[in-house]
From TrEMBL:
Required co-factors: heme
Annotated binding of heme, by residue: 305
Keyword terms, alphabetized: Heme, Iron, Metal-binding, Monooxygenase, Oxidoreductase
Signal peptide (residue range): none
Family: Belongs to the cytochrome P450 family.
Name of protein: Cytochrome P450
Residues in coiled coil: none
Gene Ontology MF terms in the entry: heme binding; iron ion binding; monooxygenase activity; oxidoreductase activity, acting on paired donors, with incorporation or reduction of molecular oxygen
Pfam family, one: p450
Classification via Gene3D superfamilies: Cytochrome P450
Amino acid sequence: MSGYVSVSSRIKSVLDLQLRWYHCTGIRTGFTLRMPASAHSVDASIGTVSSAPVGWVGSGKRYYGEDVKGEEEARQFRGIMKEIAGAGGVSNPQEFVPLLQWIDHGRLEKRLMKLANKTDAFLQGLIDEKRSKEEKGNTMIDHLLSSQKSQPEYYTDQIIKGLILVLLLAGTGTSAVTIEWAMSNLLNHSQVLKNARAELDNQIGQEKLLNEPDVSKLHYLQNVILETLRLYPAAPLLLPHMSSEDCTIGGYNVPRETMLLVNAWAIHRDPNIWHDTTSFKPERFENGESDVNKLMPFGLGRRACPGASLAQRTIGLTLGSLIQCFEWERISEEEVDMVEGNGITMPKAVALEAMCRARPIITKFLSMSEDEF
Ligand code: HEM
């Protein structure tokens, strides 16, 4: 976190921060605090606390937000990510009418090949850039390249590119979208927000910043996240699976090699399973494991999400930090719009906008010397 802003510029901006409400826009990359130019340096340091990690690409570069260096490269990256997200959500008529393969209807395969080549070239560029540098950094690519030296047969460039993509595609958008849904729910349920803030004040206080190991003490906050994942699972249909044998599901005969989608969104709202199913009630998870075991936002079984526990920690840390550091309010009397948009990771149809005001910890945080972080 160090290196963003000098101590004096932090202190200068503190008063400004404490007096005003700032407007925040929940763009797809997580929360961005929009502040006037006078507080820009503060924006940079807070951004590290509050924003979801999309855009860091394991190479230490930021491609989203206001402090982007290398705009052309960032634009290229954002373009690729947008195309991948779009391509992931489309249905392919050729899978339903195989004849269409012969006339290459929609040219989907060609477009995907082009996109794959473009993505591969971009990621290879990042690896080559790191490899050519004398000084080794502390980024994911640096570490993977050093593993490549000791285990070249496993850590090939191809594997490294795959790992970066997994983190980007599976790991960041899902977590960012969940934080945005969680914050929207909190803004529409002021008592839940108060309870979450009271828990943070009791357990952590305003003297030290929330840390990752603290998140396990915050049971109410974790229930807020579970309840968000119940009502707004980031992957509502999980990922497509394929039947390996002929089988029967719910009375339907399913032939071998049929694509199967599990509607976790609907299961999470099934009145036969959940009480008061559409209400946002984190308290429902206070009665032990039984309700938690009915959730499946990360899938189940062998192919369940391997990042589930990482996701719960990073979401807990980010959401907890947002609540610990800021007071939050809606931009108007009107409730935050909770309509779902389209996309492979279920976005909000209307991006969240909210007001935030710094809490006392920000004063302490911003007046600390860089060595104290
Ligand atoms: C809120 C956050 C997240 C949600 C809701 C989520 C959800 C899911 C779901 C539903 C699946 C498919 C499970 C199935 O096929 O039944 C999946 C797969 C996967 N997720 Fe996540 N995920 C999240 C975060 C992450 C993170 C942080 C990472 C890694 C850093 C990650 C890595 C993966 C990978 C690699 C797979 C593919 C596993 C396989 O096919 O064997 N996910 N995730």
